[in-house]
Amino acid sequence: MTISKGDRLPSTTFTQMTENGPEAVSSADYFAGKTVAIFSVPGAFTPTCSAKHLPGFIDKSEALKAKGVDEIACTAVNDAFVMGAWGKSAGAEGKVTMLADGNGDFAQAVGLTMDGSKFGLGQRGQRFSMIVKDGVVSELNVEAPGDFKLSSAEHMLEQL
Questions:
Q1: Could you tell me the CATH superfamily of domain 7-155?
Q2: Active site residue 49
Q3: pTM of the full predicted structure?
């Protein structure tokens, strides 16, 4: 079942690349007591994700935080090494937290997976964004296949 506005996020574990290597991040702990703008991309280093989606949130990070967002996070069904390298190459450090959903547990738990097999990607997370307040979804923006409008940083700014 797909998550909806007003639902509490399910408990899963992300992995984040740190100076000490990959570290587990509990979703319950990460979202507790703060407002988080989280967005999901089908894959790190893929065209729309690298040219528009991640850069949009990096560019708009100060504006989002000025409107009450405490943290901005990017997730994808990629490993922590790839997510860490992508964040570093895009200049995300200090602006967007890169959370690896290596096994797709988060994407599955929120019911937002896609089959990218015809592109050699296998099961991935759909392109979407959410505003999560203290673990509860207050806004949910799910893109139609191939689209990039609703999950953008610009659209999220309009929602805040």
A1: Glutaredoxin (3.40.30.10)
A2: yes
A3: 0.93
